[in-house]
Specification:
The complex is a heterodimer.
Chain A lengths: L17 H32 L6 H5 L2 H20 L14 E9 L4 E8 L4 E20 L8 E17 L4 E8 L6 E9 L3 E6 L2 E7 L2
Antiparallel strand pairs in A: 1-6, 2-5, 2-7, 3-4, 3-5, 3-6, 7-8
Helix pairs in contact in A: 1-3
Chain B lengths: L1 H21 L7 H9 L5 H14 L1 H11 L5 H24 L6 H19 L2 H6 L5 H21 L8 H31 L3 H29 L4
The chains are: A alpha+beta, B mainly alpha.
Chain lengths: 213, 232
């Protein structure tokens, strides 16, 4: 039994002229490309890739679908590449503390307020001053020579600052504020963390220790 | 009566299209991916299940299979062609994953889309009509089978599969692919057999292959868009 490949294809209109059959196939081919292209451009590009050359995606409401999809993909990609670096969770056994304290700075006076933090301990802070002050956010590592400090942030004539700190080493971490005016300035500090000890310094000397239970 | 038959056929086509549209587009779905990545050691049955699921829900493979068996009336021919397809995709699935050959899955999937176009054009008798000869149909199925298997391999490689039990897992996945293919083929054949008993089959065969070709072009366009528009 002879079997040729041609048996497995369409024997459409056996009597039709070859040119007519060719034309029919060519038309089908062209129509397939055209229809596929239109579906792609009108629906798929906006809905899948947030690409909208004809504006059909916006008109049909498909564009948000693509945009959300792109965002989710981007987020997933970021999450995949930053796992272990992106989110830092450090569980704490120590009691949670928060306080709001006011400090009066006499004219031309400078003062410091620092929390004792272990390495990796986090502090959430926000302070504001009634008039512009110079400040330096810094830390003194445990065991460092007296007077040695590492600066985190130093600025002149500020009325507020806020942020978070994760202590890079055990020590006391906090602020030096300087009143450069001829009037009294009040600095209000709000903070939250797991500290149990804070020190206040005036004229370079510890003047007050505060413990937290 | 012919009008009713024709509308029935159109309705069936519509349902099939609606079903396939609901199927997943690209590779292994999210939950399964998480499972695959967490896998340590052998998991014969789950991998077989995933292989079968991938085949049954992978419309690129299904469209190609529809094209391949569309004009195969005898079971002997169906078995011969499907065996070649199986041989092709098994070689590249195993070699691709075990040999660590990595290709861009968008480009591979674009070739798979092209295989659908090719098969539909062949079914339209386009090669003989335009080129004057018919390229070997069995060789084409084998060669495109290689690409389909490579596509499966790149999708599995996207997940950091554990080396522990890898061979057993890939072979299980491959067996699952064949099971899924068998299930899908059975369904397609039943549908085709039913359709062939109607006069409408001959009248609509050309148009149907045009639809299959459109689907193939759509897959090519979709995958190339994915390749060029990021998300890689």
């Amino acid at each position: 039994m002879m079997e040729t490949a041609a048996q497995h294809v369409l024997e459409s209109a056996p009597g039709a002229p070859a040119t007519e059959v060719r034309q029919r196939i060519a038309v089908a081919l062209g129509a397939a490309v055209l229809v596929a292209g239109l579906i792609l451009v009108i629906f798929i590009l906006p809905a899948e890739f947030a690409v909208d050359p004809l504006g059909t995606g916006a008109r049909l409401g498909l564009l948000p679908l693509g945009e959300v999809g792109q965002q989710v993909d981007a987020l997933n990609k970021t999450a995949a590449t930053t796992t272990g670096q992106g989110a830092i969770v450090a569980a704490q056994d120590k009691p949670f503390q928060q306080e709001s304290v006011d400090f009066k700075l006499a004219p031309r006076e400078g003062m410091e307020y620092k929390y004792r933090l272990d390495k990796g301990e986090a502090l959430l802070y926000a302070w504001s001053a009634s008039a512009p002050v110079n400040f330096e956010f810094h830390a003194e590592p445990d065991g460092a020579p007296a007077g040695y400090a590492q600066t985190y942030e130093k600025k002149s004539a500020q009325t507020q600052a806020s942020g978070t700190l994760t202590a890079p080493f055990p020590g006391i971490h906090g602020w030096y504020w300087e009143n450069t005016t001829d009037k009294e300035v009040t600095v209000t500090l709000k903070s939250a963390g797991f500290y149990n000890l804070a020190h206040e310094f005036r004229n370079g000397q510890p003047t007050k220790n505060k413990t937290f239970q | 009566m012919p009008a009713i038959r024709a509308s029935k056929t159109v309705l069936t086509l519509f349902i099939v299209c609606a079903l396939t549209a609901a199927l997943e587009a690209h590779g292994v779905s999210g939950k399964d991916a998480v499972f695959l990545q967490g896998l340590m050691g052998r998991a014969i049955i789950p991998l077989m299940y995933l292989g079968a699921k991938h085949m049954v829900t992978g419309y690129d493979h299904l469209l190609f299979l529809v094209g391949v068996i569309f004009f195969l009336y005898r079971l002997k021919d169906v078995v011969a062609y499907v065996s070649l397809f199986t041989l092709g995709h098994s070689i590249t699935l195993l070699a691709g994953v075990l040999g660590g050959i990595h290709a861009n899955s968008y480009l591979i999937d674009a070739v798979i889309g092209f295989s659908v176009v090719y098969k539909a054009f062949e079914n339209m008798d386009g090669f003989r009509r335009f080129l004057g000869f018919q390229p070997n149909t069995k060789a084409a199925v084998l060669i495109f089978g290689l690409f389909h298997g490579f596509g499966l391999a790149t999708k599995l490689q996207d997940f950091a599969l554990s080396q522990n039990g890898l061979v057993a897992n890939i072979v299980s996945f491959n067996i699952g692919v064949e099971i899924g293919q068998g299930l899908a083929l059975t369904a397609i054949l039943i549908g085709l057999e039913w359709w062939r008993t109607h006069d409408a089959f001959h009248r609509h065969a050309f148009a149907f292959n045009g639809l299959v070709m459109t689907g193939g072009f759509l897959l090519v366009g979709y995958q190339l868009s994915g390749y060029f528009l990021g998300m890689v």
